[in-house]
Amino acid sequence: MKTHTTLSEAINDLTKRGYTHNFNIHHDCIECAEINVQLRPDEFEIDEVHRFQEMSDVDDESILFAISSKQKNIKGLVVNAYGMYSDSASAALVAKLSMTR
User: Cα–Cα distance between 53 and 39 in angstroms, integer?
Assistant: First the structure.
């Protein structure tokens, strides 16, 4: 796994490697609105995790997940803040995403 200096650098690299869909976290799933796909925690794997912290603001932290689903034949990215600003999600989704932290 490559080490990236910035979030945009990591997104560009992962996109070149086939992680082309953008997912958002919802209560009990991650969703790609552009292709109308929802994945529950048991329907995707986390392939890579990258964490970033802005030097100018220690409270500005983000995490990038590269995910894939063999069932749906899809690869994509989930970007989220972590810490107190992270999105609310179900216990199952939080557990899945927390396994890699």
Answer: 27
Residue 61: which residues within 8 A CB-CB, separation 6 or more?
A: 51, 52, 53, 54, 81, 82, 83
Alpha-carbon gap, residue 4 to 25, rounded angstroms: 23
Question: Would you tell me how many other CB atoms lie within 10 Å of the CB of residue 52?
Answer: 18
Confidence of residue 84 (pLDDT cuts 50, 70, 90): very low
For residue 5 the two structure tokens come to 């200096």
Highest mean pLDDT among 53-57, 73-77, 94-98: 73-77
Long-range Cβ pairs for the range 44-50 (8 Å, 24+): 44/68, 44/69, 45/69, 45/70, 46/96, 46/97, 46/99, 46/100, 47/19, 47/75, 48/1, 48/14, 49/100, 49/101, 50/4, 50/7, 50/10
In the predicted structure, residue 85 carries a pLDDT above the cut 50:
no
